[in-house]
Amino acid sequence: MKKQLFYLFLFASSALNCQTNLLVTNTIADQVIKGTYDPLQFTSSNPVSDHQQIVQYIQNNVQADSLKAYILKLASFQNRNTGSDTLSSTTGIGAARRWAYTKFQEFSSLAENRLLPSYFQFNQTICSVNQHRNIVAVLPGTNADQHEVVIIEGHLDSRCESSCDILCQAEGIEDNASGSALVLELARVMSTLSYPNTIVFMLTTGEEQGLYGANAFSLYCQNNDIPVKAVFNNDVIGGVICGNTSSAPSCPGLNDIDSTQVRIFSYGGFNSPHKQLSRFVKLQYKEELLQHVSVPMLISLMTPEDRSGRSGDHVPFRQKNFTSCRFTSANEHGDASNGAGYTDRQHSSNDVLGVDTDLNGEIDSFFVDFNYLARNAVINGTAATIAAKGPKKPDFLIQTISGPGLIIYITDQTNYSTYRVGLRTLTNDWDTVYTISGIVDTIYPAQAANYFLSVASVDAAGMESLFSKEINIFDSQISIDELQAEDSEPFHLLQNKPNPFDEATIIGVYMKNPVKHKAAWISIEDLNGKEIERIPIDLSNEINEVQYVHGYGKSGSFTYSLYVDRQKIESKRMVFAN
Questions:
Q1: Cα separations (Å) of 96 from 126, 156, 173, 330, 419?
Q2: How high is the pLDDT of residue 481?
Q3: Does the domain spanning 395-477 belong to CATH 3.40.50.700?
């Protein structure tokens, strides 16, 4: 079985690299994405520069009724499988993508023709079809001299139990008409505005067979050295009802309703730009949007890159070193296992809009909450706005002083008078975000085991950049001098983060200087000392991390230990609770 899985992995990896003839069919859109264009050709006659006005405009103009209309239309195509009909005008992936292209054209006509619709075409055999198309709409940035691109995406294709069934009823409402509708609505609203960075609204294909459409576009970006600043992937983003099964970490049980929480998944732990992007999204919601909303939302920053055993279109971008994250509903109706006894809607013909409870021919009980989807769209639009308008990230150094105090030295991007310092300890989110003045300033955080700090520039309009790299600072409880002493242990096992944790946690090892060794691993043990899992760890960096996934719906305590060349170095305890 392991050998079969290994060869399957090699086949999948090879397939991802077989994508050829990557083509943006609209040559002007292609030039804009590559940064070879004149912004004056796309100037708005009524530009709005104030980011707070833009955020308010997005909030006021994203409409639940528009989202519902898009979803109803997408459902009407019956089957949007990647290999489905491309010739029919009413059914199949071809009709769906032509309709989406037409919608982008309509939005452009309402935005002084500044939005550039296009297909992104690539060749690859998927479900016996050799050529495929994403649908993109490009909003040119106003500053081509500092060209960067922000991508808002969702996959258009749908599926039933079999990944290449082109005849089943595959309306794919939650997965992923909801995400496609969100992208369309943001294209409609945001295309009337102006941003220094270029924004690409994209509906991908081939997601259900292996993230192929997203991989093809990320490969196009990589091949053309396109400076992708951030990728916001929206997948399974409108449903509010928990199924009997759900890919962990997810909802508490059958028919639980949650319309006020959204999960953001991203890769990595310490010094991960993807986790930094997730924190940035949450910060912008709290500071730019929360005070104006009638229904507050909980934004949950998840530890893993995606749900257990699952993946999404943000992953190919991350694999090519483009910063990305995924927005997903708090509740999912199923884990897509499709095995015997599977009764949930995801990846089935039952992924429909709702039911007619009074049998009058009208759906009156909806599985997707359109107001919830609208709120998620506004969260996306707000984060994308600040990302596309904000300044460049800074670089910085830190000096520890007594007090305790930390002196922040800005070493790059020194033309701003204000900076933000994000500090976190035991969670995925920042504990505190400080505002400092000038290129040298001091903060005085509370005592903690150790700190992770990063910095953002703030321009004259009050907009943050994305946050910089993270620096790990130990306080007096873990003295740097002690760790560097000749007679001290060269390895230090860090407290897992987050702790307590949801379904997965990050375990780190601090190593100031390289030490020769043959093998190292983290041993997860129950409180009786029985080993539950052994995870190899590469101790080649100052901070080295592995992810431990224990599964959802459990609670209790484990110990974890660092072993180097079969010698136990240190142990700590961690708590998990769902």
A1: 18, 8, 13, 27, 45
A2: 42
A3: no
Do β-strands 324-329 and 228-234 pair in parallel, antiparallel, or remain unpaired? Answer: parallel
Fold of 481-577: Immunoglobulin-like (2.60.40)
DSSP conformation class of 257: B
Q: Can the peptide bond before residue 514 be classed as cis, meaning omega within 30 degrees of 0?
A: no
Mean pLDDT, rounded, of the chain: 90
Give residue 396's identity as a one-letter amino acid code.
F
Rounded CA separation 407/429 (Å): 22
Residue whose pair of structure tokens reads 């030295």 in the numeric block: 409
DSSP 365-407: EESB-HHHHHHHHHHHHHHHHHHHHS----EEEEEEETTTEEE
Q: Which helix (H) or strand (E) holds 21?
A: strand 20-24
Model confidence at 152: pLDDT above 70: yes
pTM of the model: 0.90
| Residue whose pair of structure tokens reads 């909303």 in the numeric block | 293
Does residue 519 carry a pLDDT above 70? yes
Architecture of domain 2-389: 3-Layer(aba) Sandwich (3.40)
| Exposed e or buried b per residue across 401-438, where buried means at least 16 C-beta atoms within 10 angstroms of its C-beta | eeebebebebeebeebebbbbbbbbbebbbeebbebee
| pLDDT band at residue 542 under the 50/70/90 scheme | confident
Separation CA 336–CA 172 (nearest Å): 12
- Span 100-109, average pLDDT: 98
First to last CA, the chain: 32
What is the model's pLDDT at position 476? 38
Nearest to 188 by CA among 285, 69, 275, 32: 69
What's residue 483's pLDDT?
Answer: 39
Query: Is a pLDDT exceeding 70 seen at residue 2?
Result: no
